[in-house]
Design goal:
alpha/beta, Rossmann fold, Helicase, Ruva Protein, domain 3, five-stranded parallel β-sheet
């Protein structure tokens, strides 16, 4: 704390400091920031993709002095946004020393605060609290009680202080009163039982708190904000109508709308830099990580009402890097190129991040994860290479009329009985460069690709052809084996 801050009520008055409500405080600081011309990214650092949608609505609610709720599926930065509201509070706030409720030195709300001012007058001591200490958060669960949020009578405190049970000194204050002159957040509001939600009504409308069995009414100054998942409205609970009516602004959040924003979020949040091993991440593989989430949000096997969190791509990218790092450490390398097989090896980052519908449960979480990962890779493959079933693709640089199927030499090579094994035993995979025309195809369609990433791009092509049902793929703990689709089908018939 700064050493020259006022230490008594008299010094505070002489400094020119004036009281204001927490709503006026955050509003004034937002107004000052807007007047200075700061950008959304400066006011809300690290929050990407909301600059034209969510952030303007939050700022409108603040300018309107509203309590508000953020409504959205899992992994949409709701809690992060609520916690960032502290940036709009003053850096430090004076409170009356010796009180529990952050009493305003000029207008204390607690009985103890009023007694201190009455006894010491202008010499009453004050202390300064940081803005981070003025934010409190509670995760709503069915076992939360009124005593947790508002408070209750404490018989032990009454006995030790020799006061009756109807004395304010016999009260134990809950989280909300202790957040007086600050911001109180409730996450997953519908999980709060209806009778507990009723206890919040006075706080949002009359701005006071009434404690059970005690006539005290405390005129609290609290900005109350909430978060909720829309699925909770019907499946796990509901926000009671009077409470929903008192929440002045309802703001909808969303997942990243573009691949570019999604990738920026992943790279911002993921643990990617590893000591001792440099993991080279091809652009197309970073795209495949993000495409996996987009595919999951469209899959009929995934419960879309639960959402697919951004945490999926963060964890997937980290596991992908870790699998490449592990290969490098086993082979004694200091640098390694991440490849498609590393993506499939990271399936554990997907299985725990998706809720499956009945059909998906029947297939199993691992099978669904592998399918979604494959669909993500297939979508990226089609973004950079010709679609396999547009069979007549003219090679770049050839004359019209000399068209041919660019994948035919590759498919024919596998049809001749050849196979490619992709495992962690060599870097790059030993057999993948032997496939006819495969390297030339990569150079043709990814001309600026670094040479070290060419084998990884070759694997992308093989996986793309597998997703198009032109090649077979057998997975085992040792790796993946690509072969001829027809031979694999006939082998299945024989079995």
């Amino acid at each position: 704390m700064t050493g020259n801050l006022p230490k008594t009520v008299l010094e505070l008055a002489q400094s020119g400091w004036r009281s204001r409500s927490v709503r006026d405080e955050v509003r004034d600081n937002l107004v000052a920031s807007l007047k200075q011309g700061t950008s959304e990214s400066e006011r809300w650092p690290g929050v990407l993709g909301y600059e034209k949608t969510v952030i303007p609505q939050i700022e409108n609610a603040i300018l309107s002095r509203h309590d508000f709720i953020l409504l959205g599926l899992r992994g949409q930065a709701k809690t992060r946004l609520l916690r960032m509201l502290t940036r709009l509070l003053d850096e430090e706030l004076p409170v009356l020393e010796g009180t529990e409720l952050n009493d305003d030195p000029f207008a204390p709300v607690s009985g103890k605060g009023r007694r201190i001012v009455a006894e010491l007058g202008e010499e009453a001591p004050i202390r300064w609290i940081r803005r981070e200490d003025r934010y409190r958060e509670k995760l709503a669960t069915p076992d939360v009680t009124i005593a947790d949020l508002l408070g209750d009578i404490d018989p032990i405190k009454a006995a030790s202080r020799r006061v009756t049970l109807d004395d304010e000194d016999a009260l134990h204050f809950g989280l909300v009163p202790r957040t007086n002159r600050g911001i109180f957040a409730i996450n997953e509001l519908p999980d709060l039982s209806p009778r507990i939600q009723v206890g919040l009504l006075n706080i949002l409308e009359e701005r006071d708190v009434q404690l059970r069995g005690h006539p005290v009414r405390l005129p609290l100054d609290v900005l109350v904000v909430f978060s909720a998942n829309p699925e909770d409205y019907t499946n796990r609970g509901a926000i009671i109508t009077p409470l929903r009516d008192r929440i002045a602004s309802q703001i909808l959040t969303h997942y990243p709308a573009s691949m570019e924003i999604a990738r920026q979020i992943t790279e911002q949040e993921a643990y990617l830099a590893r000591e001792g091993v440099a993991v080279d991440m091809p652009e197309f593989l970073a795209e495949a990580v993000e495409e996996t989430a987009f595919q999951a949000r469209q899959s009929d096997l995934v419960d879309q009402t639960s959402g697919v969190s951004v945490r999926l791509t963060v964890a997937l990218r980290e596991n992908l890097v870790s699998n490449a790092e592990r290969r490098a450490l086993r082979l004694g390398l200091t640098d390694v190129v991440a490849r498609v097989s590393d993506l499939f090896a990271a399936e554990s980052a997907v299985t725990g991040k998706i809720e499956l519908v009945f059909e998906g449960e029947r297939e199993g979480s691992e099978a669904v994860a592998q399918r979604i990962l494959g669909q993500g890779v297939g979508a990226v493959f089609l973004r950079h290479f010709p679609a396999p079933y547009d069979t007549k693709k003219r090679r770049k640089g050839t004359e019209p009329g000399t068209e041919e199927d660019v994948y035919k030499p590759i498919v024919d090579w596998f049809a001749a009985g050849n196979r490619v094994v992709v495992d962690d035993e060599s870097e790059p995979p030993a057999q993948i460069l032997e496939v006819p025309t495969l390297v030339a195809l990569v150079h043709q369609h990814l001309p600026s690709l670094p040479e070290a990433q060419v084998p990884a791009a070759c694997e992308l092509v093989l996986e793309g052809l597998h997703q198009a049902s032109l090649l077979s793929k057998d997975r085992s703990h040792d790796g993946a084996t690509y072969g001829d689709m027809l031979q694999r089908m006939f082998a299945g018939f024989e079995d």
